[in-house]
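Ticket #4471: structure output looks truncated?

Reporter: J.K.
Steps to reproduce: submitted the chain below (272 residues) through the standard prediction queue, then opened the result file.
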Amino acid sequence: MAAAALSKLVVKTLNEIRDMCKDFDIIYVMFSGGRDSLVSLDLVLKALDNKIVEALFIDTGIGTPGLKEYVIEMSKYYNVKLNIVGPEYDFFDLVMKIGFPMIKYRWCKDYLKIRPLKKFIESIKEKTDKILLVTGVRADESWFKSKASKIYDHPTLNVKVYAPIFEWSSEDVKKYIETYNLKENPLYQIYGKAYDCWCTVFKSPADFALLAINHPDFFQKFVDAETKLRSGGSALYYNGEKIYLRDIAKNPWEYLKKYPTNRSCPFCKLLM
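Returned output as attached by the reporter:
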């Protein structure tokens, strides 16, 4: 994108943010530590007085090591209040009771994200119901996201949700980060994403191979949980194939060669 075109897009987005947010008492920017949420936070803080803007991070307990620290660092840089919410249950304890999440039963989203966020929102509603959640969702992430709405009432959280960069492309986001010299999460250099949740749904064997290579202690927690499964099942199902993490642990480089990494999972974000 040319500099003039980016500038025009930024001005348009800033004006829209001001207009959209004017009737709310508090604006929570969902800051996952990824590129899209970084750009959304930067734009909102440029557009609004940060007295009514706060960052909101959902600590799933299974985010990539270093992710939470990055979110804390950037919140301090922006001098914006950071709210960290997390689940009541440990992911690995739930795996022992329920099994690893599956495409047909992706319980991780409910337990790790929706429930703690709902509890937080309900506590804020005791003070004001003029709450707006801002997300970094973009239409071109996937066919599924393209059918979403830029502004809508969340059916479970009972608050209005707004995606200011909904029409932006991934190249627009990258160009904005470069032009305005934002500090991108260094995890992108390793995984191609930040990954705030390493549930095994929509991850490829190569993703977990990268995890085994770069964060072996964290990866071992998944291997240990898989080993303890009474069913003897595998943590991963990829294209109908059972993939055992203990096998990836033996030779992760083999799995990197054999399988593609999933660098753009359209289902990993909270608000769909």
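Triage note (M.O.): checked the attachment and the full token line is present. Residues 203-258 form one domain.
Status: closed, working as intended.
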